[in-house]
Every structure is written in C-alpha cells, then in structure tokens.
TrEMBL record:
Family designation: Belongs to the peptidase M18 family.
GO MF term set: aminopeptidase activity
Keywords (A to Z) from UniProt: Aminopeptidase, Hydrolase, Metal-binding, Metalloprotease, Protease, Zinc
Lineage of the organism: Bacteria, Pseudomonadati, Pseudomonadota, Gammaproteobacteria, Cellvibrionales
InterPro entries registered for this protein in UniProt: Peptidase_M18 (IPR001948), Peptidase_M18_dom2 (IPR023358)
EC number annotated for this UniProt entry: 3.4.11.-
Source species: Candidatus Marimicrobium litorale
Source taxon at top rank: Bacteria
CC cofactor: Zn(2+)
Protein name: M18 family aminopeptidase
Pfam families on file: Peptidase_M18 (PF02127)
Gene3D superfamilies linked: Aminopeptidase i, Domain 2 (2.30.250.10), Zn peptidases (3.40.630.10)
Broad class of enzyme this protein falls into: hydrolase
NCBIfam families: PRK02813.1 (NF002759)
C-alpha cells in the first residue's frame, strides 16, 4: 500500500513509463487490480457479486471499469464513482504508411486529438499499440506491441533553410511531421514485417500467418521524472490524463470496501468520446443498470450516486499569466482544481463542488478553482457526457498542469497525491451524496 507522496510519485512515474498507449495503460491497470484480488467480469455473462468483493471489466482493450461491491449495498446507498480517460494526443500511424524519400524510410501519421506539434521535433521516438493478425489455423488474434527503443525521430528544418523559423514557423501536419526510421535498403521496408517480428519478440510462441491491421502511435522515449531545483515537479508524457487514471486506481485500492465504489477510464476523450468505448458509449450506464438489478432500483441508484470526473486542469503559466482569468489562475502544488463553466462544458455545480470541498478539508488538502476567460474557448471533459448519459450528479476536477497536450507535460509533485487522498476519502464517505 502506498503511504507517502514520494512512494506515490515513484509508482506514478513507473506507470507512466509503461503506459505508452491506452491499451497498455489498461493492461497495467488490469495487472494491478488482479494483484489486489479483483476478478474480471464479462459483459455477456451473469455477474455473481459478493459484498466487499472487487471486480473489473475491459472494453476494446482501451477502456476499463473497476469497482468494489460494497458491504453496505442497496440503491439508496448509491455508487461513489471516479472517471478519467486513457487516451492522450499523439501521432498515429496511417493504414498504408510506408514512405521512401531521399534515401530515408518514413511512416506517415495522423494527428490524434489536439496535439501541440512543435514539441514533437527532434525527439527520440518509439512505437506502440495494438495489432490484429491471422494465425495459421485461420483464427483472428490481437496483440499489444511496444518497441521501447528509440526507433524514429522527426528532424527540424535547420534555421539556415528557414530564416523565419523563430518568428512565424507553421507546422504542416501532412508534410512536416513524418517520422524518419532508417535509411532505405534495396529490398525495401514493410511495417507489417516489423510488427510480425515484434510480436514474436514480445509474445513467445505467437504464430502469425498475416498481419491484418494495427492501431499504432509514436511516443517520446524520455522517461518520466521528478524534476526541479527542489524536486517540486513531475515531467512526463501523457500526464493528461493517465495521472488521473493512476490516481483513481490507487484511491480505489485503498478504499475500505464499505461502500460501492467505481472507477471508469474511457478511451477516445481527446477526439470527442463518441465511440463504443468512449464516455458517450454505453459502458458505464450498462454497469450501473446491472449493479442496480431492476428499473426502479436503477432510478434510485442513479439518484443517490455521485461522479468525480478527473481530468488535468490548466495551471497559470508564468510567461503567459494573462491567458487566465485574474481570480482563477490555478498554481501547481496548491491543490486540485474545481472546474466551473456556466455553459456546462464542465459538469460542476455548487452542490457537487460543496461536497468535494468538504472532503478535501477533511484531508487537509487545499482546493483551487478554474474558470476560463470569457474571451477564450473552454475545453471539456467526460464529466458533462457522463452526467448526460447516466443522470448522475457530477463534478469536474483536475491537477493543475503546464504544457498540456505537449509531448512532455508538467505537474506539481504534491497535487496528484493530494487528489488521491481526497478520492480515497470520497470512496469511504458514508454520508449522503447530496445536500439536505
């Protein structure tokens, strides 16, 4: 069990270093849950739940629901839920990606989500994802792969050839961010051949007749680290939003099992959540229906449940402080952030934020607020979508972060641990989840 901030951050960095795609994040989470005695459920089979037991189910390899079935069960007790998402902006490989240009072998990519593109240049990149293949017996299989080594890079154009680079360089997403893997050989290169070799390397005994298709993304190989003169920051890729996924899992594992507690981590948030495994899909709603056991019981369960949607927040940038509202500029290491938006881009209301503030005070963790400037566009989270799909009272919170959607982001070393303590208290909270 993780008892200190240093232990928490060390475990978080280890998770971030291995969770290079949503599929790998879910795989690592499954291993952690199974070590803690959680049992995997199937959506197409009956559930036999024991009070105090831990359970989970996986959808499309990239989304997961995990829950403890509380010893104090009943629709009137509700479900204490935490939500996050497993995906991050990245560069995904196109279906027919092979390019040979000027003696170099490259792979064409698509931009997934709202990625900041400039930081991808001159990085040591690797490749990971899911591959579908055909066995000699005609069976369809899927395998996760992660090359781990730095196998690619996207070189910048030298300033000598672009004298305006520091003033107005624009990144053309079609032509400028094509990764280079190696120099071309006379026999040519095939990504499918590379993938077949990697599957055999990572999965001993795999029999491959044909590589059928793949979902692959490049990632920066630089490892996560606690940095800064006083070690006050965590620097890593995919902090948005694997930091929240890890925090939710640890809080769930530290819950005492008295209440029914649930964690949902959806894929595809960065591209709108409209998918079978996204927050607009049926995954969470169907779980709540099965936990309730009937129509009237489901209505009561929804009425007495509560969701904390956790997704990183924008910390105020010291070089661009005017991009924040003057009274709502969250700072790193000053506590989790409650996100508020009058147009319902966040699901927070005064009742849901009130409960979170009460729980934070019990843990002696400070809390901040974020409201976007009126003259700027507001982002969103799985919070409003989850609230609309389930009818559950919902709050949007997150850890303040700099460089969001960059290839490497920055968060405070104190904030994720503080959020974990609040979520643990929320999971164990036996009182009513709405104001009297």
């Amino acid at each position: 069990m993780i008892d200190t901030q240093d232990e928490f951050n060390q475990a978080l960095c280890m998770f971030l270093s291995r969770a290079t795609t949503p599929y790998h994040a879910v795989g690592l989470t499954v291993s952690r849950l199974q070590q803690a005695g959680f049992i995997q459920l199937a959506q197409d089979k009956p559930w036999a739940l024991e009070p105090g037991g831990g359970y989970f189910l996986v959808h499309n390899h990239g989304s997961i629901v995990a829950f403890r079935y509380g010893r104090e069960v009943g629709p009137e007790r509700g479900v204490r839920m935490v939500g996050a998402h497993t995906d991050s902006p990245c560069l995904m490989v196109k279906p027919s990606p092979e390019i040979e240009s000027e003696g170099l072998f490259q792979l064409g990519v698509q931009v997934y989500g709202g990625a900041l593109l400039n930081p991808w240049f001159d990085r040591d990149l690797s490749l990971a994802g899911r591959v579908s293949y055909l066995c000699p017996r005609g069976t369809l299989r899927a395998a996760l792969v992660d090359f781990r080594d730095a196998i690619a890079t996207i070189p910048s154009l030298a300033i000598h050839l672009d004298s305006d680079a520091n003033r107005k360089r624009e990144v053309n997403a079609q032509t400028a961010i094509v990764p280079v893997l190696c120099q071309t050989a006379s026999e040519g290169m095939s990504l499918r051949d590379m993938l077949a070799m990697q599957i055999r390397k990572e999965h001993s005994g795999a029999e491959i007749e044909q590589i059928l298709d793949f979902e692959l993304s490049f990632y920066d190989t630089q490892l996560p680290a606690v940095i800064g003169l006083r070690k006050q920051f965590i620097a890593s890729a995919r902090l948005d939003n694997l930091l929240s996924c890890f925090t939710g899992v640890e809080a769930l594992l530290q819950s005492d099992g008295s209440q029914t507690t649930l964690l949902v981590c959806n894929d595809h948030e960065e591209v709108g959540s409209v998918s079978a495994s996204g927050a607009s899909g049926p995954l969470l709603a169907s779980c709540l229906q099965r936990l309730a056991g009937g129509t009237e019981a489901h209505a009561a369960l929804v009425e007495h449940s509560f969701m904390v949607s956790t997704d990183n927040a924008h910390a105020v940038h010291p070089n661009f402080a005017n991009r924040h509202d003057g009274n709502h500029g969250p700072r790193m290491n000053e506590g989790p952030v409650i996100k508020v938006n009058a147009s319902q881009r966040y699901a927070t209301n005064s009742e849901t934020s009130g409960l979170f503030r009460m729980l934070a005070a019990r843990e002696s963790v400070p809390v901040q607020s974020f409201v976007v400037r009126n003259d700027m566009r507001c982002g969103s989270t799985i919070g409003p979508l989850t609230a609309a799909m389930t009818g559950v009272k919902t709050l949007d919170v997150g850890v303040p972060t700099l460089g969001m959607h960059s290839v490497r982001e920055l968060a405070g070393a104190e904030d994720a641990w503080g959020l974990c303590r609040i979520l643990r208290g929320f999971y164990n909270y036996a009182g009513p989840l709405s104001a009297a």
